[in-house]
Amino acid sequence: MDNENIIEVHGLSHSYESLRAVDNISFNVKSGEIFSFLGPNGAGKSTAINVLITLLNLQEGMVTIAGHDLKREPKEVRDSIGIVFQEITLDRDMTVKETLEFHGNLYSMEKSEIESRIEELLGLVELREKKDVLTKNLSGGMKRRLEIARGLMTRPIVLFLDEPTIGLDPQTRRKTWDYLRMVNNEGTTIFLTTHYMDEADMLSDTISIIDHGRIIASGTPAELKNSLGEDIICLETNEREKAAKAIKAHEGVKSIGENEDGLVIMTDKDGAHILPEIISRLNSEGIGITAVNLKKPTMDDVFMHYTGKELRD
Amino acid sequence: MGFGFLNVYKRDMTRFLRFRHQLFSSLLQPALWLAFFGLAMAGNFDRILGGTGTAPAGVMTVDYLTFMCAGVLAATILFTNIYGGFILLFDKNWGIMREIIASPMPRKDLIIGIAMSGITKSWIQALIVIVFGLLLGVNFFSGKGILEIAVSFVGIFVFIGLFAMAFICISAFIALKMDSPEGFQGISTLLTMPLFFVSNALYPATGLPVVLQQVAMINPLTHLTAGIRYFAIGDHFSAIGLEFVYSPVEMLLSLLYLAFFAGIMFALAWRTVEKAVIT
């Protein structure tokens, strides 16, 4: 099963009346990986995931999940996947155990299988003591963990999560990531959407950056960051044009951009060595520099680079 | 082969039994109706008529309380079920509907499960109302032996089952179409009023204007009330000075009408849940 594609999407589009929320996207998710859709709110992530989990009709495109054609075999697709929705979707008046039982029964699981799976999963997400507690009495993080456990009840081949850590405090977010890695290590392929750079960066094997319904870049986090260059040098100066002209041809300078303070220089060699050379060059030409900064490209830089804007909320 | 509806049924019944105050009030309400409204009206009718009214020789006469108890029972079943689909609106608003809709369970199982729990709740309430009525002096099953009473109960329960199914499906339909509890409440209440008053539940429909009499004839509540009176009181009796005769053929037609109506309403709810897009 290694390296086999668990999800194959080709030419997927989805419109709400005149609004084209998802516009001709194609991608593959490999077996056993964590795949992220990274994009701002309103980019079309939720629409795309809702089509994949059969909540929205497939309007255009070809989708195969776990070997089943989404259009022709939606029931088989449903049987193969687990889902954690964006908002909390728990019955406040049912206990933790009843919530999981109800879910197992929705998927026609055997009674004994349900029992043993509940024990196992409550152990995994550390909710065993809360078994008979009504879900309304759980904390936000516990609710999330219960939902992850619920998504895993049926031993799905792929677990879909829509913004899994939205609204959680930093500590709970980290904990949730740990659970997801654990689940992934046990062989479950994970598909998630997020608008958090750090989440996509820390968790994913593959990221697709999505904006305005289109995929604008894909790759591993390292590939995406490396595509920008080795290092990023930010130069604060009042003489941008002169400075850019002076260093444009310098060895190791890959490209030069601008931000509100000055120049943003991408390098394709070790920036720590290039930086002193650049500074002395600018000094010799009499161009004033007020500040410098050297850093590795981050997901934010990647996002800025491909979309030309900061991630809006 | 799926039995997903049992899962839906179990959840709904668990919730019903879990909320003690809700359970208690749903059982107490019809009893209070009977106790206050019933006794007051019975007192007035008896005063106006100077007793329970005159009846032809050989025809059993029942007091107003007995007459209206069947109607209160029928109305209780109406109220329980017309609001019974609320759980679907709740599920929609809390996102649980998405979990259900995205699962492999056939969607019609959702309607079947909700209908089953509506019927069960109705039967429990019917039993309570009948027992409470008997304690208040309602003259049900008079002169009947154990076996005949058992048959009467079966008859009443069949009528109630069909009626409950019809109205829980209507309620499910409204819940699936509405977005807010207020909208759901408004529509349900709007429906309940004419159903309740343009029927033979509290008084004989013959007292209504002709147009409303005809409306009462197609009102399922009229047929349910008639069925309950037939089985609980008898096929020929007199109350509030009027003579009532129910023939087995009429009862069969009422039953078929309720079954037909329930079938249509189930189909409506089923179609709506199949088409529902919930994200």
Write structural notes for this entry.
The complex is a heterodimer of chains A (313) and B (279). With 313 residues, chain A is an alpha/beta fold. In chain A, 36% of the residues lie in helices and 28% in strands. Chain A has a six-stranded mixed beta sheet, sandwiched between helices. A four-stranded antiparallel beta sheet of chain A has the order 2-1-4-5, with helices on one face. In chain A, a hairpin with a 2-residue loop joins strand 9 and strand 10 (214-219). Chain A is elongated and about 80 Å long. The two termini of chain A are 38 Å apart. The model of chain A has no long low-confidence stretch (mean pLDDT 90). The mean pLDDT of chain B is 91. By secondary structure, chain B is mainly alpha-helical. In chain B, strand 2 (236-239) and strand 3 form a beta hairpin. In chain B, helix 3 packs antiparallel against helix 6 (108-136) and helix 4 packs parallel to helix 7. The chains are: A alpha/beta (313), B mainly alpha (279). The interface between A and B is medium-sized, with 28 and 26 residues.
What summary fits the major beta sheet of chain A?
6 strands, mixed
Low-confidence stretches of chain A: none
Alpha-beta classification of chain B = mainly alpha
What is the CA-based Rg of chain A, rounded? 23 Å
Give me a quick take on this structure:
The complex is a heterodimer of chains A (313) and B (279). Chain A has 313 residues and is α/β, with parallel strands linked by helices.
Secondary structure blueprint with pairings:
The complex is a heterodimer of chains A (313) and B (279).
Chain A: E1 5-16, E2 19-30, E3 34-38, H1 45-52, E4 60-65, E5 68-69, H2 74-80, E6 81-84, H3 96-106, H4 111-124, H5 140-152, E7 158-162, H6 170-185, E8 189-194, H7 197-203, E9 206-211, E10 214-219, H8 221-226, E11 231-236, H9 240-247, E12 253-258, E13 262-267, H10 271-284, E14 291-295, H11 299-307
Helix pairs in contact in A: 3-4, 4-5, 5-6
Chain B: H1 4-18, H2 20-49, E1 60-61, H3 64-82, H4 86-93, H5 96-101, H6 108-136, H7 146-177, H8 181-197, H9 210-218, H10 220-232, E2 236-239, E3 242-245, H11 248-275
Parallel strand pairs in B: 1-2
Antiparallel strand pairs in B: 2-3
Helix pairs in contact in B: 1-6, 2-3, 2-6, 3-6, 3-7, 3-10, 4-7, 6-7, 6-11, 7-10, 7-11, 10-11
